[in-house]
Structures are given as C-alpha cells and as structure tokens.
Write a structure and sequence with these properties.
Blueprint lengths: L2 H18 L8 H22 L11 H22 L6
C-alpha cells in the first residue's frame, strides 16, 4: 500500500479504535488519533505477519481493516495504561 493509503487507513482505524476503548485514551485530537492509528496499523500488521494469521497488503480487504483496528485498539490500551488512563477530577 502507498503512503497516503497508510495515512487514511490509520486515521479510520485510530478513530474506530478510539470509539471502542473505554475511558479517556492517551493522545487526543486528530493528529494523535492518526499517529496512534498508523502505528497501531503497523503494529497489527507486523504481529499478524509474525504470528502467520494475516497480512496487510490490500487497502479494501476486510482482513486489512480488522488487523489495523485491532492493532490501534491494542496500542491505545497500552498508551492509556502508561499515561494513567482516565483520570478523575
């Protein structure tokens, strides 16, 4: 996939993963969501390839999207745990 496709996939995967994560996840805003989405998509693709359960190779493939969303979800959970998750005021 091309660079623009990674950014678009990361934006949507990060946004969907943010909606699925309970509480206040770490980074906020469009740039933070996109960064976590892109990194999560890369993480999910790498883990799926290493575990031989899938790979990210086509933009419009459902498996690609599910792996990217799962990677973003996992990364948001880790970032939330490191940053303290949701803080009460």
């Amino acid at each position: 996939m091309g660079f623009l496709a990674w950014i678009i996939l990361g934006l949507f995967a990060g946004t969907i993963a943010r909606a699925l994560v309970p509480g206040e996840p770490g980074p906020s805003g469009c740039i933070g969501t996109t960064a976590v989405g892109i990194l999560g998509a890369l993480l999910g693709g790498w883990l799926a390839t290493e575990l031989d359960i899938g790979k990210i190779d086509r933009f419009f493939d459902l498996e690609t999207w599910l792996i990217a969303i799962a990677g973003s979800f996992l990364l948001l959970l880790v970032v939330g745990l490191i940053s303290g998750g949701s803080r009460r005021r």
